[in-house]
Amino acid sequence: MSRISSASHTREPEDIIAIFHCSFHPTRGNIIDWSIKASEDLNLDGVEFSTLPSGLHLVDEDVVHITQNVHHGISVFRKRSTAEAGMRGFRLESLGILVAQSSRPRPWRHLGSLKELSRQLGEHWESSKSQYAEDQRDWSLVEEWYKRRVFRRIGEEGRWVDWEEELTSDNKHHPALHLPHLLRILGPSSLTLYKHVLARRRVLIYTNPAVEPACILARIASDICGEEDRPTVLGMVGINDMDKLTEESFKGHGWIACTTDAIFLEKPSFYDLVIDMTASRPSRPAFFVSRPAPPSLRGPRHRLVPVRFTFSDVRLWSELDKALRADAEEGTFEESKTRWTDGWRLYEDVCVACAGAWMDGWKSGSTSWGIGKDGTLRVTTKGRIQLDGEDEGIRNLGKGIEGRPLTQWKRQSSVSTTNTHLLSREVRTTLALLSIFHAHSEFLSERLSELLEDATADGNSSTTVVLTPKDIMSLELGIWSELDAKFLEWLAERNKKSAGKKVIVRRGWRDLLGALLGFG
Q1: pLDDT of 54-68, one tens digit each?
Q2: Whether 261 contacts 209, CB under 8 Å
Q3: In a designed cystine with 231, which of 5, 254, 364, 374 is the match (CB 3.0 to 4.6 A)?
Q4: How many CA atoms lie within 13 A of 153 on its CB side?
Q5: What is the 3-state secondary structure (H, E, C) of 339-370?
Q6: Does residue 336 belong to any structural domain of this protein?
Q7: 152 and 194, same structural domain?
Q8: Residue 203, helix vs strand vs coil
Q9: pTM
């Protein structure tokens, strides 16, 4: 990716088009107390519901990512004590901003100073409460802050350069820096999210307050799929945004959103994948896919079905896990000491090990089991996948971009790094993980384009393109996995080489047996 010279990062970004203050009123509900807009054409209606989602009264502070029409924003929530009559001892308030539309909006660049402004505002009102009534507050601090950051034009500091520049340019609040931690939390199931986002499906993250982790996960999910044609991140949505979700769904580009409204769990037709971060299961959120319900006269048309990672995810996860282990060895992360005390992680270790043995062991006939030095389960298969150890490459040469020589792999990835020894540990780890994700995305795109080009090169006038289990295996996906078959169909229909034709993956028992035995 070509680099563009960036301007100095010493001054504040000048990209804010609106700043607003919302609160909950005991009789009027969520309201906008005050706002300033760069243009009167900017509509803020409904932003009071996005910045004050249901249940936020359960926490004292939070950060909420939002979208308002085509503009991205962020808000800081605080629960303040008050003696005002009818307020039940506290006020629920949110101070938020919207930034100018661009190819890559970055509202989190203002998060640190926005938090400080919110704190100063509360202290100022508290110290001057004898002079200002609740409905006559002094907004001069906010006005001065806004004037220094109001949108003038998208300058050099607002343009995309590359990931190294993005994560090191005075940007400690960048959501992508949380990628290593979220991968440890989600485990191999994170690849289920990756597949849905890469195929531009509709993803909903259901959470309890605080909502900031869910908002960060939504941003990261968009980042891991690559640089081009990224899905829309809607941020926090509620029951009043159902029309908005329907409109975004009709665009066919996919979206990622967060919500605290449990009613969405009863409406699976609105999304393709839901991540339940409120699940009581230790350490791991629950993943559910939306499936059409059996035909009936009554009842919902869709139902939620639990989903986990597939055997085909083992290769990619082992590469990610290597980067995470390297980070743990360099830093202070001590996951290995608790691995065997976490039942769910033990289950995943066994599943990953069994999957690796099943996928590769039956071909090579040489598989060894053991316990690594850190107490984790270890499987080594001669000439193939190794879940622990010092080998430089997971895949054989020619079995995917990640298996090619290291220099060639770096050229293929959209993540370029220079002087990595000068980067912080968290930045190095994040860049390594993004590089793995982006290289795999490019491998899938390139290989699928080759398959579709071959399938449509014979001049067949049919409106349908049929892919076989052999094609599935060439993309390092699982022939037995229904999710992998659907993923391939979704991905193929978005590929330009499909020429608008419907793509079907044929998985009859004859096809599966033939692929397994190496026929046709």
Answers
A1: 999 999 999 999 999
A2: no
A3: 254
A4: 2
A5: HHHCHHHHHHHHHHHHHHHHHHHHHHCCEEEE
A6: no
A7: no
A8: strand
A9: 0.82
Query: How far lies 314's CA from each of 70, 186, 286, 379, 477, in Å?
Result: 38, 14, 19, 12, 10
Residue 485 sits at φ, ψ, to 5 deg, of -65, -45
Domain containing 260 — which CATH number? 3.40.50
Using the 8-state DSSP alphabet, how is residue 101 labeled?
-
From CA 49, how far away is CA 237, in angstroms rounded?
A: 8
pLDDT per position as a tens digit, 297-338: 577 788 999 998 898 999 999 999 999 998 776 654 444 433
Q: Which of 440, 467, 482 delimits the end of a domain? A: 440
Sign (positive/negative) of CA torsion 327, 332, 334, 335?
negative
Q: Do the domain assignments include residue 219?
A: yes
Question: What is the per-residue burial (b if ≥16 Cβ within 10 Å, else e) of 269-296?
Answer: ebbbbbbbbeeeeeebbbbbbbeeeeee
Spatial distance between the Cα atoms of 298 and 367, rounded to a whole number of angstroms = 52
Helix or strand holding residue 72 (H, E) = strand 71-81
Confidence of residue 10 (pLDDT cuts 50, 70, 90): low
Q: Which residue type occupies 47?
A: V
Which structural domain range is residue 283 located in?
184-306
Structurally, how many domains does the chain consist of?
4
Q: Look at residue 404 in the predicted model and tell me its pLDDT.
A: 33
SS3 86: coil
Report the C-alpha gap between 455 and 453 in whole angstroms.
5
Residue 4, in any domain of the structure: no
Q: What are phi and psi of 176, to 5 degrees?
A: -60, -25
pLDDT tens by residue, 369-410: 333 444 333 434 343 333 333 333 333 333 333 333 333 333
CB-count burial class (<10 Å; 0-12, 13-18, 19+) for 40: exposed
Query: Tens digits of per-residue pLDDT, 442-459?
Result: 999 999 998 888 777 666
398 and 455 co-located in one domain:
no
Which of the four pLDDT bands, split at 50, 70 and 90, describes residue 104?
A: confident
Burial of 477 (0-12, 13-18, 19+ CB in 10 A): buried
Instruction: Give yes or no for a cis peptide into 210 (omega within 30° of 0).
Output: yes
Can you give the pLDDT at residue 352? 53
- Write the single-letter amino acid at 9: H
User: Residue 386 has what DSSP assignment?
Assistant: B
